[in-house]
Automatic annotation (TrEMBL):
Species for this entry: Pseudomonas brassicae
UniProt-recorded name of the protein: shikimate dehydrogenase (NADP(+))
Molecular-function GO term, any one: shikimate 3-dehydrogenase (NADP+) activity
Domain of life the protein comes from: Bacteria
PANTHER family, per database record: BIFUNCTIONAL 3-DEHYDROQUINATE DEHYDRATASE_SHIKIMATE DEHYDROGENASE, CHLOROPLASTIC, SHIKIMATE DEHYDROGENASE
Reaction(s) catalysed by this chain's protein: shikimate + NADP(+) = 3-dehydroshikimate + NADPH + H(+)
GO biological process, one term: chorismate biosynthetic process
Domain Shikimate dehydrogenase substrate binding N-terminal positions: 14-97
Record domain Quinate/shikimate 5-dehydrogenase/glutamyl-tRNA reductase: where: 122-197
Pathway: Metabolic intermediate biosynthesis; chorismate biosynthesis; chorismate from D-erythrose 4-phosphate and phosphoenolpyruvate: step 4/7
Amino acid sequence: MHPLITGNTRIYGLIGDPLRSAKSPMLLNRLFAEAQTDAVCIPMEVGTQGLAEFVKGARAVRNLAGLLVTMPHKQTMLEMVDMLHPTAREVGAINVVRCDPDGRWEGAVFDGLGCVLGMQRKGVSLHGKSVLLVGAGGSGRAIAIAIAAAGARSLIISDLDPQRATDLAQRAGEQGSCTVHAGPADPAGHDIVINATPLGMNPDDPMPIEAERLNPATTVVDIITRAEPTALLLEARARGCKTLDGQPMHVGQALLALRFLGFKEIEHRYSTGL
């Protein structure tokens, strides 16, 4: 059960469109309740055309303490905050906003770091590994930069927009000693394959890679969160691959977001239990 909502309850909103598969409110409200914290996370379905109007109104809500940001607002929100955390400047996107008591909003992004943390918590190390990343959009951009900084040996980035993949490869290549290139979505020869595209959210979506070219020793990560495994994960499992769905990344993001939002006690308490 969630604790009783009081006049002092801090509100954290999740904004995006659509939100039908959103897991953040359930996870954060469970953590708030278990820690007996007077806070609540609620979904706020805001479309692209209504974002500016929403932000204008939200700034008047003095007990709004933060926002979680998902598609399609991760880039647009950059222009609607007062300060950018180094992660947001690096990636060029935002997925969490801290609304400080003085009225200033600071945006950060933990998609990439959350993905890496989630993989590590499941025993998947990136150190010295060859990685294929499919998708160079908002989440893919953050993941590429985090992977390159986490000690991967090499990273191939594939996207339907070759120029977007090339631009991201150049940016990610500035992180550490990882060799980063744009290339085809061919999983053969890679230690880790990550799907950062929306392909798999719907039953009739095409596969993001040719699964028949997967090696059993490859770890396959699909960042999509849904109740049933995606077609990619089912094919990968059939070929003997270790697989991770979007839940480890989701938990990793939540832990990092809790720290950023000031819930260090909750983050520390649950960092080993989730």
